[in-house]
Amino acid sequence: MDGLKELYNYREMLSNLVKKDLRTRYKGSVLGFLWTFVNPLLQLIIYTIAFSTIMRVNVDKFYMYLFIALIPWLFFATSLQTSASCIISNKDLIKKIYFPRLVIPISVVNSAFMNMVFSMVIVFLALIFSGIGIDKNVIFLPIIMILEYLFVLGLSFIFAAINVYFRDLEHILGIITMGWFYITPIVYTIDMIPEKYLGLFYLNPMTRIVTAYRDVLYYKQIPDFASLAIILVWSIVFIILGYILFGKLQKNFVEEL
């Protein structure tokens, strides 16, 4: 509880770090912050062309089916890869002043989460113009986004702490996320997975997360509450593990940096 109170006391620093990241991400570019919207829009156009005219998949409006899953995946992958190097990239700040080190990975995840929220504007517009539309079940979307946020935050604590001592992790994560992408039903449907392997695929939390997004946005139905409960359990487990591990490893951050 003392640690949580300390984080709350440094909430202004956390807010400033997030704002700084959002301001500097596209600093010097012509479009600036508009790239937050342009990037997902360009991706949607590419997928529309590719899956409507070249690679035809037996799913109605497959480009939207793919796009809905890709946005939360990008939040997940970006957060993990950026958080792995966040402590090292802020070593000068860590050496100069005292503050709860957890603020740094939290700011990384918060910044990526804000980008996902902005990208959802493009998703909503695409759903409307594609003819799929939006219905009342979209009210479950914030719950799914929060559950994914908690899951990603727990993993980010773990990778941010370990990478200080094992610098190769930052590079290994690129391979891990690439493999993780292909064992998550993003570019294919659940129905394409052989039944004997289905249980293994559902051990992957991102499978349930991606499915929940599609249930609400693509199929316009209520998400499976059992899956949401499992995602919540995974999130709590990784938050607790990440918090404990980070707390133990941060004691020697200055010496390692």
TrEMBL record:
Major place of residence: membrane
Chain ranges of the ABC transmembrane type-2 domain: 31-249
PROSITE patterns the UniProt entry points to: ABC_TM2
Taxonomy, superkingdom: Bacteria
Keyword set, alphabetical order: Cell inner membrane, Cell membrane, Membrane, Transmembrane, Transmembrane helix, Transport
GO (cellular component) term, any one: ATP-binding cassette (ABC) transporter complex
Pfam families per UniProt: ABC2_membrane
Membrane topology: Multi-pass membrane protein
TM region positions: 30-50, 62-81, 102-132, 138-165, 172-190, 225-246
Locations listed in the record: Cell inner membrane; Cell membrane
GO molecular function, one term: ABC-type transporter activity
Any one of the GO BP annotations: lipopolysaccharide transport
UniProt family annotation: Belongs to the ABC-2 integral membrane protein family.
Name of protein: Transport permease protein
Originating organism: Clostridium chromiireducens
